[in-house]
Design a protein that fits this description.
This protein is an all-alpha fold. The protein has a domain at about 1-145. The protein has 17 helices and no strands. Helix 11 packs parallel to helix 14.
């Protein structure tokens, strides 16, 4: 209410000065600028920020507010100053959402949340709870948008933040927390993984531990995990381990890929013998003939839909098994 009163007082003062004091008004027709700038008391500053926010000058609100809250004279008005700054951030968020820039709006709301949380006495206002609810709802969409940003130095920090957010969302999902707003986990994770490099997928979670948990089909943790991470997502994790292990010559990643294979075979009953044998081949524990034999069996097995999971190419009779292995 103090901010509302100061806003009204400021408007009346400006009106009177413009009407009756030419040194403040100047003359637009004759292009004469005002001789004096307006000076306002500290008590009117929250009202001034409200007015600036209302006419869309959100950056000015932030710049002025950031300096003002550090000033001793502003102490009695700090709550209203912070609230004005938070509302300006909400205005920025609204513009971002209208332009379909989810991450821009999300980040503005996060700044508004931070401003309101900086004072314990603002912790119970309705605006803060509304902002927090919106952030929870928008987290999955914002994460996907940021993960899809091009790999460049200027985007590096935001992408790291998005990967951390993805990790936290999965953690919430695996813990069956009610605050997690992901509606369709397989679809969400598939989209997220398609935006990540193999190294980022491998480093995202302790996949070997999760795979071992998955083997126990009857455990609650295993059942929860299947809702969040379906077979296709886990298969992408397996391929990421093989790809990164092969390209960077890290045998320990191929070892982990083999463990993932074994666990998926045990938990899903899916035929991943080709992938398992391929891991053994890369580890030097199996010879080329073993892998070629598996590929030939895959070719002959009509139930396999003639799909080679490693290369993503069709295994046709015109393409020899040795050539497929090389691919």
């Amino acid at each position: 209410m103090d901010a509302v009163a100061s806003r009204q007082g400021l408007l009346m003062d400006v009106r009177d000065k413009l009407l009756f004091e030419p040194e403040y008004a100047g003359n637009i027709k004759e292009k004469i600028p005002p001789k004096s700038s307006l000076r306002i008391p500290w008590a009117w500053l929250p009202g001034a920020l409200c007015l600036l926010q209302e006419v869309g000058e959100v950056k000015l609100v932030q710049d002025i507010g950031r300096v003002a809250v550090q000033h001793l004279d502003a102490k009695p008005y700090v709550h209203d100053l912070l609230l004005s700054m938070a509302l300006a951030e909400c205005g920025t968020a609204k513009i971002g959402f209208e332009k379909n820039k989810v991450s821009q709006g999300f980040e503005a709301l996060a700044r508004a949340q931070s401003l309101l949380r900086s004072k314990t006495s603002l912790g119970k206002i309705a605006l803060l709870s509304q902002i927090e609810e919106s952030l929870e709802e928008l987290a999955p969409a914002c994460t996907l948008e940021l993960l899809g940003m091009p790999h460049s130095p200027e985007n590096a920090e935001r992408k790291r933040g998005a990967i951390a957010a993805l990790r936290e969302l999965v953690r919430q999902g695996l813990g069956v927390e009610t605050s997690c707003r992901v509606q369709d986990w397989p679809c969400f994770l598939s989209q997220a993984f398609n935006r990540l490099m193999a190294s980022e997928i491998v480093d995202l979670l302790p996949w070997d531990d999760l795979a071992i948990t998955r083997k126990n089909k009857k455990s609650l943790e295993s059942q929860n995990q299947r809702v969040v991470i379906d077979f296709n997502c886990f298969y992408m994790v397996l391929i990421a381990h093989i790809a990164l292990g092969f390209s960077s010559k890290q045998k320990e990643l191929i070892d982990k890929a083999k463990t993932l294979c074994e666990c998926l075979i045990a938990s899903e009953g899916t035929d991943l013998k080709l992938e398992e044998t391929f891991c053994l081949f890369l580890l030097g524990r199996g010879n080329e003939a073993m892998v070629v034999e598996k590929l030939k069996k895959l070719e002959l097995n009509s139930n396999s839909a003639a799909q080679n999971p490693i290369s993503g190419k069709e295994v046709k009779h015109t393409c020899g098994a040795n050539q497929t292995l090389e691919m």
